[in-house]
Amino acid sequence: MSNKRALRQYRNFYAALLRLHTKPYHERFGEGMEQTFCDILRERAGRGKGLFACALWMFAETAVEIFKENIMKNKNIFRIALATAFILLIPLVAMQFSDEVNWSVFDFVVAGALLFGSGLAFELVARKGGNVAYRAAVGVAVAAALLLVWINLAVGIIGSEDNPVNGLYFLVIFIGIIGVAIARFRPRAMAWALFATALAQLLVPVSALLINKSLASVLQDPPGFVGVLVLNAFFAMLFVLSGLLFLRSVAAPKTEPRA
């Protein structure tokens, strides 16, 4: 990848990251920070140095500042943390009364990360919209992604959770994340990102069979190939619904954005 092309892509991703700042902060400092980011990378490129490590460091540094800013100014983050802790109490208490519930420390860590991360993603992204339709679109997309990952880790969708082809579903989530970064939270572009995610979701079973034809025997077990297709169609419809809500948000009246 040429430095010019890399710089353009890094700038797009950094601009999307900056939009996670609160609206007043982004309007005041976002353009200057983006320009400084580009100037630093151009200076490194001019000296023949690589851009990836420097860009990654600035991404991380900015992400930490965004996290601190939102923690300090947004009480909803604490509510998300409390809700996550409360939900995790359910299996913890259940373990005391039933031998069938046997979560390890790793299970609690993964579940906590998924729940808190999903709540945080909704809180940070939903505020970028100015109406209910936009926030609903974010909620549907985050809920679909959380449910997809949870089911995949817990029992697997194609065969058991140990079947390596289930890793394709993480590629679906990755496509969605990249699409959102490219969309930079603009509703029309976000809609197309979700439509692409839905298409990727539908292609997973077919791709899995093309990669490993021995899966045909696995798919004969419940829920079977038809069941897998139905489950994939369900998640695809959720992503499509999210995309349609993003399109609806374009025409919907604006409401006062949250701080």
Secondary structure topology:
Blueprint lengths: L2 H16 L4 H24 L5 H22 L2 H22 L7 H22 L5 H23 L13 H16 L3 H25 L3 H4 L5 H28 L8
Helix pairs in contact: 1-2, 1-3, 1-7, 4-5, 5-6, 6-10, 7-8, 8-10
Question: How many strand segments?
Answer: 0
The poorly predicted ranges are none
Q: What general outline do the C-alpha atoms trace?
A: globular
Number of helices: 10
How many structural domains in the coordinates?
2
Q: What share of the residues lie within helices? A: over 70%
Largest sheet: none
Helix and strand succession? HHHHHHHHHH
Structural class: mainly alpha
Instruction: Kindly provide the radius of gyration, computed on alpha-carbon positions and rounded to a whole number of angstroms.
Output: 21 Å
N-to-C CA distance: 39 Å
**How would you state the average pLDDT, rounded?**
83
SS strand fraction: under 5%
